[in-house]
């Protein structure tokens, strides 16, 4: 992806998430009433504030272009839950959820080398007990 496209995607995602995070604490954008019962439960329990804090953290990291892989890793569980909620429970903003998934997916694909160790078979340079046993060595009974 060209650098300008990466920056545009990063800034767009960062601003959308920042607005959503701030909106969880201070109403800037009106929220359709009545709230879905699941959303009402998250608000009543206070759980939504922890999620909004994660959103704000990730948005600031994205907008400052600092620790982008960390910001993306923080956002995946949040955005997947937003998408599942809107696609399965409350269809009012389903298109927005798909857009969020697209932006997040594009940035993650661009930074896929940073995530490669998560999908590696094992750590480089280390052998597990099973690897040692397969090579004729005995694993310790500890």
Secondary structure: elements and pairs:
Blueprint: H1 3-25, H2 37-45, H3 47-63, H4 68-89, H5 94-110, H6 112-115, H7 129-134
Helix pairs in contact: 1-3, 1-5, 3-4, 4-5
Structure report:
With 142 residues, the chain is mostly helical. It is built from 7 helices and no strands. α1 (3-25) runs antiparallel to α3, α3 (47-63) crosses α4 (68-89) and α4 (68-89) packs antiparallel against α5.
Poorly predicted regions are: none
- Report Rg: 20 Å
Element string (H = helix, E = strand): HHHHHHH
| Portion of residues within helices | 55-70%
Counting helices, strands and paired strands, the structural category is mainly alpha
Biggest sheet features: none
- The proportion of strand residues reads under 5%
The coarse silhouette is: globular
Summed over residues and divided by their number, the pLDDT gives a mean of 87
Termini separation (Å)?
49 Å
Query: What's the total helix number?
Result: 7
- Assembly of the depicted chains: single chain
Give the number of DSSP strands: 0
């Amino acid at each position: 992806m060209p650098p300008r496209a990466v920056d545009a995607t990063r800034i767009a995602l960062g601003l959308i998430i920042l607005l959503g995070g701030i909106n969880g604490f201070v109403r800037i954008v009106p929220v359709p009433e009545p709230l879905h019962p699941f959303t009402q439960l998250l608000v009543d329990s206070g759980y939504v504030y922890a999620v909004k804090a994660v959103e704000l953290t990730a948005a600031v990291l994205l907008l400052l272009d600092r620790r982008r892989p960390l910001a993306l890793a923080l956002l995946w569980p949040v955005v997947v839950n937003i998408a599942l909620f809107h696609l399965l429970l409350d269809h009012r903003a389903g298109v927005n959820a798909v857009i969020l998934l697209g932006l997040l997916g594009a940035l993650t694909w661009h930074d896929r080398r940073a995530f490669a160790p998560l999908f590696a078979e094992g750590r480089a340079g280390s052998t597990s007990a099973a690897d040692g046993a397969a090579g004729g060595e005995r694993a310790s009974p500890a």
